[in-house]
What we know:
InterPro entries: AA_transpt_TM. The protein is mostly helical. The chain has eleven helices and two strands, in the order αααααααββαααα. The protein has a two-stranded antiparallel ribbon. Helix 2 packs antiparallel against helix 8 (206-239) and helix 2 packs across helix 9 (249-272). The protein is globular and about 60 Å long. The model has no long low-confidence stretch (mean pLDDT 85).
Amino acid sequence: MAHHILGPKWGRYYVGPIQMAVCYGVVIANALLGGQCLKAMYLVVQPNGEMKLFEFVIIFGCLLLVLAQFPSFHSLRYINSLSLLLCLLYSASAAAASIYIGKKSNAPEKDYTIVGDKETRVFGIFNAMAIIATTYGNGIIPEIQATISAPVKGKMMKGLCMCYLVVIMTFFTVAITGYWAFGNKANGLIFTNFLNAETNHYFVPTWFIFLVNLFTVLQLSAVAVVYLQPINDILESVISDPTKKEFSIRNVIPRLVVRSLFVVMATIVAAMLPFFGDVNSLLGAFGFIPLDFVLPVVFFNFTFKPSKKSFIFWINTVIAVVFSCLGVIAMVAAVRQIIIDANTYKLFADV
């Protein structure tokens, strides 16, 4: 869209790099979160185990290394279906467990106050906005996919409604029940709140912890592979020989090397910098805010050229300016938080 509306350079040097950075950032974040879930499963079996987080990130990276060899988006269709089912399962499990724990007599004390000084709170607001943009920004994907064939208008609305239905069933339920049960102590990975820090025992049965983390690991692996695929497609358009068959030695070897290299790099970064929330906020500030909230309204004004006296022109302009400023501030807040956490934790920290 940027290529055709704004010109080839905008597509190649602005939108394209942001999209690729977002896709690769999601792979890194999923590798980290997958490692955290594997570690939680390990601690259920071996409560006094000595394995570190980075070791589990590497194990998850090995799983991605295998799944990354699927040749195309079409070959991922069954993995996508499984991913949706797993997303619904672990979201329902997390919400049910939060309600169960919140009603227990020995439930954690609920504190809903906002902690920190004024500076921390202000930066925290912009950091949270960036995380929200990352979490809910995927809503634009089915809306864009609906434009592939006519009629566009009705299908775009159906795609958007479907996406928000999934969002309400998953993100909203987990966020609301998790915050109700744990207040400001709710962690980025809500499953970690299911452990009673005082007794070092879980509020729920250990088999439940193991199962819900297994659902999450499998779903994260599917999501990571999907977000890795656009990068693979672009790189392979350069290194592959279109005159040869897809599974010829000439095309298979470069594909295997490039895909493996990118998975290894993502795994190393995830193991070195285990700050999941910080990665999410940086992704939102740098990628999802401009792609979801700035560029669409700019594209509209450039394509349909509404009168500069019209309401739609000015509301689109205001949205673009406000979210551009928000993106810059959120990026500063995200980098600030990464620096703070980097001073708190060392490389390959076991968090």
